[in-house]
Design brief:
201 residues, alpha/beta, Rossmann fold, eight-stranded mixed β-sheet, three-stranded mixed β-sheet, 13 strands, 25% helix, 30% strand
Length: 201
């Protein structure tokens, strides 16, 4: 069973629907015991960093998320869920993130011809041997919606990058913890393969 963490963030239902399309049992929950008992866990979300951390704290979810990430069972962050895994974001500098992985979240810099938020399809530059991208071609296209991007503190955890005025750490992988800045649930066949890979870990 896959626990999808429910903390009133946007886009959660799309993740649930994508997993159901893969015939995976997925439960939308904020019950710590259900999360602990799951085989896999997903932290999705669209929204603001500070607001999301406040909601996780109010629902008492921060300890169980850290516990699950340390458990060895597969954990996946999506979009805002990736950003929350890191220590802080320029969006709300006074709010600390989960600190599960080292790194900071920065605003995409303004540049001629670039629209922010970054909304649309971009190709990925994949790092060799990363399990989340098994079976995918180099330069696979995925769908992004974001104004802030990850700058990982450890290059070794970066699983994929993309370019949008700056090099964006688009996915990370460290042991059992995986995360994508893009939305696999909105990325067609490529995204479904990524979710399938996660479900088969």
């Amino acid at each position: 069973m896959i626990a999808i963490i429910d903390y009133d963030a946007g886009n959660v239902r799309n993740v649930e629907n994508a997993l159901q399309a893969l015939s995976e049992e997925a439960v939308l929950t904020r019950d710590p015991e259900v999360i602990r008992g799951a085989d896999r866990c997903i932290l999705p979300g669209v929204g603001a960093f500070g607001d999301a951390m406040n909601k996780l704290e109010n629902y008492g979810l921060i300890p169980v998320i850290r516990e699950f990430a340390a458990s060895g069972k597969p954990f996946l962050g999506i979009c805002l869920g990736l950003q929350l895994l890191f220590s802080q974001s320029e969006e709300t500098p006074d709010v600390k993130g989960l600190g599960i992985l080292p790194g900071v979240v920065k605003r995409i810099p303004d540049a001629p011809g670039l629209k922010i938020p970054h909304i649309g399809w971009n190709d990925l530059k994949l790092r060799e041997g990363r399990r989340l991208f098994a079976g995918l071609a180099e330069e696979s296209y995925v769908y992004f919606v974001h104004s802030y991007y990850l700058e990982a503190g450890d290059e070794d955890v970066v699983a994929a990058t993309t370019e949008y005025g700056v090099t964006i750490h688009a996915a990370v992988e460290k042991d059992n913890v995986f995360a994508c800045q893009f939305h696999p649930e909105k990325s067609g066949d490529v995204g479904m393969q990524i979710l399938k890979n996660f479900c088969s870990l």
